[in-house]
Amino acid sequence: MPETTRRRGIALAVLCTASLMVVLDGSIVAVALPAIQEDLGFSTPGLAWVVNAYLVAFGGLLLLSGRLGDLAGRRRVFLAGLVVFTASSLAAGLAPNAGSLVVARFVQGVGGALASAVVLGMIVTMYPQPRARARAIGVYSFTQAAGASIGFVAGGALTQTLDWHWTFYVNLPIGVAVLVLTPFVVEADRGTGLREGIDVLGALLVTSGVMMLGYGIVQTGEAGWTPATVGTLGGAGALLAGFVLRQARARTPLLPLRLFGIRAVSGANLTMIVMVAGFLGFQFVTALYLQQVLGLDALGTGCAFLPAPVMIAVFSLGLSDRLSARFSPSTVLVCGLLVTAVAFLLLTKVRADGGYFLHVFPALLLMGTGAGLAVPSLVGLAMSASGPADSGVTSGLITTTQQVGAAIGTALLASVAAARTGGLLATGADRREALTSGFRVAYGLSAALVTLAAVVAAVTLIPRRRVVAPAELCAAGVDQPGGPTR
Fold first, then answer.
1. Could you report the per-residue pLDDT of 211-253, keeping only the tens digit for each?
2. Domain covering 3-186+256-462 in this structure, CATH number
3. Residue 103 and residue 82: Cα distance in Å, rounded?
4. What residues does each domain of the chain span?
5. 3-class SS letters over 91-122
6. Distance CA 377, CA 369 (A)
7. What average pLDDT does this structure show over 261-265?
8. Extended beta strands in 428-483, E state
9. Rounded Cα–Cα distance for residues 334 and 323 (Å)
10. Which one, of 124, 121, 147, lies nearest residue 136 by Cα?
11. 143-195 pLDDT tens trace
12. Residue 383 needs a FRET pair 20 to 30 A away by CA distance; which of 135, 151, 230, 473 works?
């Protein structure tokens, strides 16, 4: 193996390890929430902010972090993010009370955004050849698609064998190792420079807008459509509208609007929002079904998810790039989404007296297959059309839409499931039957969202065949059917 290829492989492993660490942090803590609540005395509403503080900061800063990578150098921003993330993980593990843990989680989100927003741009730059790039994106996509499921397993194991503090301490050796290795295996990049300055007003508008949007979505899932949540979402919409207007006029825009004129970029980001809404909402609902209806503990719930990441690994690491080369990435994407929709439809048949291997296991196999095909194809399409100078902001954009989709899906599916369950309980229905009925409705919505994502992808990403007029054929020296030969 040539030295350059070996070094790139090690660099890819280092970058994807860091990315996986950040992704895991969104789900690994979820399993430990009951233990955290008991130890630190969280109220029930306050406990949600152990997760939400991280997600709000993370989602709000991704776009700014991606552009900073383009301007100041992606490796520099990546290393700064790792330092912040690793240090705040230590602070979270040592947190003596509820307030300090929430603050540490917010800072973790800041570090996670800085580190993860530029990873995809670095990978694309390292692998300019299409086939090698597709394989590298497959490895990255595995960390994104399977990370949450792996987090459930790791969170359950750490909480039950050690204690909740280790869901944060586990980041320390990983973060330090990546910090040490990165300067040796990842080449430094200069960036385009900060000479013309960064769009400070645009950064403030988009960061506050996305943070407020995330907060509003979370509150909608918890409190419903109250005047406060509607006002929050309206304020977020106003800030984001102001951001768009600012980008149209700024001399050095944070997010060049010309990127949305690229069909692959705009179509892939729209597809990502809808797809992830179905994917991540499914994980939330399934964890509740496994624990509240089938009676699995935290570790058992984590292990129950394992078929999905195994299948994601098989297809994203071994087959997705070959199929994309044979049939086109957009075709593989649509097929993967339709396979996933079938998996969610199978889950609409779950029962209160059902069993894991009968009702859940087959759907997880299908879901992993579909995600393993769809996610690498979608990420590759999103990144394929942007130039090197914009790869950081394009990476940050696709990660931002992924986070927005996750927040929307989790809040939406939790709301419809709770509404259905609450209505049945009010009529005196059995609790497990009512819960299961709510979960079935949520699974049906997941299937609808993923099907909609397939339609969006088919319309926006599958290349249209151009019909060539006969006059053009003649001008090109091509004989028409039945015409005289030359």
1. 787 777 767 656 667 888 888 889 988 998 998 898 888 777 7
2. 1.20.1250.20
3. 17
4. 3-186+256-462, 200-255
5. HHHCCCCHHHHHHHHHHHHHHHHHHHCCHHHH
6. 13
7. 78
8. none
9. 12
10. 124
11. 877 777 777 777 777 777 788 888 899 899 999 999 999 999 888 887 666 66
12. 151
Residue 271: Cβ within 10 Å count: 30
**What's the Cα-to-Cα distance from 343 to each of 127, 271, 279, 360, 399, rounded to whole Å?**
33, 19, 11, 9, 25
Summarize pLDDT for 64-106 with one digit per residue, the tens.
888 888 778 889 999 999 999 999 999 999 999 988 998 999 9
Q: What are phi and psi of 131, to 5 degrees?
A: -70, -45
Question: How far is residue 64's CA from residue 243's CA, in Å, rounded to a whole number?
Answer: 12
**Closest among 293, 327, 298, 236 to 443, alpha carbons compared:** 293
* Token pair of 341 as six digits: 């929709």
Query: What number of residues does the chain have?
Result: 486
Secondary structure of residue 78 in the 3-state scheme: helix
Q: What is the largest CA-CA distance in the chain?
A: 88
Q: What is the per-residue pLDDT for 236?
A: 86
Whole-angstrom Cα distance, residue 26 to residue 426? 34
Which residue has tokens 């987090």?
151
Strand, coil or helix: 348 = coil
Copy the structure tokens of residue 375. Answer: 């996610």
Q: Which residue has the tokens 């597809």?
A: 271
DSSP tag of 248: H
**Residue 30 DSSP code:** G
pTM for the predicted model, two decimal places: 0.77
